[in-house]
Design a protein that fits this description.
The structure is a single chain. By secondary structure, this protein is of the alpha/beta class. It has nine helices and twelve strands. The protein folds into two domains: 117 residues, NAD(P)-binding Rossmann-like Domain (Rossmann fold, 3-Layer(aba) Sandwich), CATH 3.40.50.720; 178 residues, Rossmann fold (3-Layer(aba) Sandwich). α1 packs across α9.
């Protein structure tokens, strides 16, 4: 990767930080200016400020790519997403030419593994039921098998899925998983399946975690037939994207007892509408797309972006470059 011919030195580089909201987000701009004082840095928080600055930007730092102004981004050479996924750019990925896209991949794995293991424990022990009984001052003891006697299936073994698998293995669980390239073993995974082995993975698992990227191939990956394969004692956990599950068919299965329950952090529509039945189902735990949101998120992202910006200025290869043909 080389800098555009229009850039001769650091002070010719313009970084645009774009986070829409009622007020400009100055956290990233302050971090950039402190470490790279020679760079020009602009902050945009609405359509007007974005339109004003995007034509000057060589580098864009944003959560989502603003595809509506792509044709105006004449100098743009690199987009750094603050997310692990870059699905926001997919609508124009056939038009981006030499634009380099990088992600925040690698910083979410441990916190999401914490979330998943907490959720597995809550569902395995049926803590929601304990809490309902507590509210009624009812005393109902019951036995539970050790987690070490249970099987976790991880669908998608990127950095996040691999972290989840390792954490489950440390709890003594048997771990099965699937990934696009199943020819190389993954630490902590006892049995590895290619994508075509999804049905077998679902049948083997007591808990199924969805950790796939949002790409066309994963849209509607889990529907009525896949849920039926899991069985009535299996729990489903989704920390991927809401589009991976056919939500109406999941609701139908949860009502019918086709599976035991679900822990859902992502949904087809977010925020989850107030009239969604998922809010009040006794076998569902709903969280507000927070599994991958560690404290000091901006500081953690800047460790990746700051290193990449230094590489960009030094004309070195960037970290976390996304293959847009694969989607990650």
């Amino acid at each position: 990767m080389t800098l555009p011919s229009t850039i001769a030195s650091d002070d010719d580089v313009t970084v645009l930080v774009y986070f829409p909201g009622p007020q400009p987000d100055e956290r990233y701009t302050a971090l950039i200016r402190e470490r790279f004082p020679a760079l020009r840095v602009f902050s945009a928080n609405d359509a007007a400020s974005l339109d004003r600055h995007v034509g000057e930007a060589d580098v864009l730092l944003a959560q989502h790519f603003p595809v509506e102004v792509f044709d105006k981004a004449r100098r743009l050479h690199w987009f750094q997403s603050t997310n692990a996924g870059v699905d926001s750019i997919f609508p124009i990925r056939d038009r981006i030419g030499d634009l380099i896209v990088t992600s925040a991949r690698g910083m979410h794995g441990e916190i999401i593994a914490d979330y998943v293991m907490a959720g597995i424990t809550m569902m395995h022990w049926d803590f929601p039921r304990f809490m309902r009984e507590q509210s009624r001052k009812e005393w109902h003891a019951r036995g539970v098998a050790p987690l070490a006697e249970r099987v976790l299936g991880v669908v998608g073994l990127g950095s996040i899925g691999t972290a989840i698998a390792g954490r489950a293995k440390s709890a003594g669980m048997t771990v099965v998983g699937s990934k696009r390239d199943a020819t190389q073993s993954v630490a902590g995974v006892d049995t590895l399946f290619p994508p075509t082995g999804l049905d077998e993975l679902l049948q083997l698992s007591d808990f199924v975690v969805l950790a796939v990227p949002q790409v066309p191939e994963t849209t509607g990956l889990i529907g009525r037939e896949q849920i039926r394969l899991m069985g009535h004692t299996t729990f489903l956990i989704n920390i991927a994207r809401g589009s991976v599950i056919v939500e109406s068919e999941l609701v139908e299965a949860l009502r019918a007892g086709t599976i035991a329950g679900a822990l859902l952090d992502v949904f087809e529509k977010e925020p989850l509408p107030a009239d969604s039945p998922l809010w009040t189902m006794p076998n569902v735990i709903v969280t507000p797309h927070t599994a991958g949101y560690p404290s000091n998120y901006d500081t953690r992202v800047f460790k990746i972006f700051g290193d990449n910006l230094q590489r960009f200025l030094e004309k070195k290869p960037l970290r976390n470059v996304v293959d847009l043909k694969q989607g990650y």
